[in-house]
Amino acid sequence: MRDDASGVGYGLVPETRGLVAAARRALGERPRVRGQLDECARRLDEPLRVALAGQLKAGKSTLLNALVGQDIAPTDATECTRLVTWYRNGTAPRVTAFSLDGARADVVVRRGRGAEGLPGAHGLTFDLSALRWNAPAPREVDHLAVEWPSAELAQTTIIDTPGISSLSREVSARTSRLLTPGGPGPALPPADAVLYLLRRLDAADVDFLERIGAGPSASTGAPQSFSGPLGVVGVVSRADEIGAGRIDALHSARDVAARFATELERTGLCQSVIPVAGLLAFAAATLRQREYDAFEALAAIPVDELTAALLSADRFAHPDLPLPLPVPAELRAHLTARFGLFGIRLAVTLIRLGVRGSQALAAELSSRSGLDELRTVLDVQFAQRADELKAHSALTALARILTANPGSAADALLPRVRTLLADVHGFAELRLLAHLRSDELPLPPDDLAELNRLIGGTGVAPTLRLGLSAHTDLATQRDAALAAVQKWRARARHPLADQFTASACLTAARSAEGLLDILHEPPTTPFPALRRPGR
């Protein structure tokens, strides 16, 4: 049974479909419930849904643009940043406003212009001032839906949410209603996973992360830790600002991320914490030749002179610098808004070190922004486990629906749904990954690395779990999986192992057993001999 690219499936998606179908047969006479169950079934076939959350001005829209590699999300403080916005793949760019009662209106999209004909630093603006609703009277906008041709959005629907620390309670409440379980709103959790952006780690962040991952157990009947989205990755956003824009800013940000990771991962609130300079990542993804030419011209200036000009953003963009620069003031202001001082310093340094051409510079800037590392984590934690995350959302919703509609034959389904939420091995792997980066397991470093790899921490393909080459033959893979089962079951039985360590070792052993289950011997029965007619 294979549900995902790992090959270590447990029939989770088919069983979830079966449970939803059984609930629909038992509760189908109730139109509202039937609609909720139909949505559960549809979600299993749709792209994974990932929400971007965090406090005000955390850089969510900028990171979204960087991940998609296109300028599709407004980043300036306008009315649209106060709304939940859904970004989906579409055949043509289109932005639609929706009201609470389902009415819709097309939104005019405007693109600002920057220096020397370049696109503006703040990209697109969604104009909500003159909406034409397909309804008799004007409505209040509840959320926006953006359709945009994008390979990234074809795989993942991204939900951009307002800041949780907004001065307006209603604006912050929109994000709470969307992501925190057990509250009012649709039965199906809108997001399967969450990217939570941090600029600092304070009580508001911890409180919101706790509410994302837990909710009133009465809402599902399941343990609290299974109520919200199963995948949560933290991002130390605007990482370049931590080091005041210095060339070593990301080193400082990495230290901060490590501290946040230690604090958050011990509680299981985040599976990983990654530092990312979102502004630089987006600028690198959309670097233009004219911008590269400007950096090349700046790289020719003596180091001391350019350092003096880059003391502050205002100074660098000022038209009357004491020492003239070979880049016009308007273009310097554009570079400051697009790349920040950190990005300008880094780009100039890379060119001085021999990086040539806009494509090569863009690749170097992207790598140093932290975006490549984040993409790797998202691939391992989210994309390769998309079926498990979507099934978790559907099962959570089904538990809520069954609990809210007792007194039918569907009641018999609830124990199985609760068992799946509590016992499915893929969920156990994800929860264990949330703890492994702490120092709680008293195992040697090599064993910790093997444990992390075996439960899918570096990828879910069998060869990645086993630490083997992608071209390793099946027999060798089976031998390695069997050895892993024996090793980790023995570790779990060690008399000095505490309960958590023993449980972690058993999880690793079960992962190896799952590998053995799918790395079975190929059929060896020969084809029946062909006989001539009449014989």
What does this structure look like?
The protein is α/β, with parallel strands linked by helices and 535 residues long. The protein has helices at 12-27, 31-43, 60-68, 151-155, 169-179, 203-213, 249-265, 278-285, 289-299, 303-309, 313-317, 329-352, 358-369, 371-381, 386-404, 414-423, 425-433, 445-454, 462-466, 474-492, 499-518; strands spanning 48-54, 84-89, 94-98, 104-113, 119-133, 143-148, 156-160, 193-198, 231-236, 272-275. A 10-stranded mixed β-sheet has the order 5-4-3-6-2-7-1-8-9-10, with helices on both faces. Residues 1-9, 215-226 and 523-535 have low confidence and may be disordered.
Main β-sheet description: 10 strands, mixed
Spans where pLDDT lies below 50 across 5 or more residues: 1-9, 215-226, 523-535
Oligomer: single chain
Number of helices: 21
Number of strands: 10
> What is the arithmetic mean of pLDDT?
80
Shape: globular
Global structural class: alpha/beta
Q: Give the spatial strand order of the biggest sheet.
A: 5-4-3-6-2-7-1-8-9-10
Cα(first) to Cα(last) distance is 40 Å
Helix fraction?
A: 40-55%
Q: What is the rounded Rg?
A: 26 Å
How much of the sequence lies in strands comes to: 5-15%
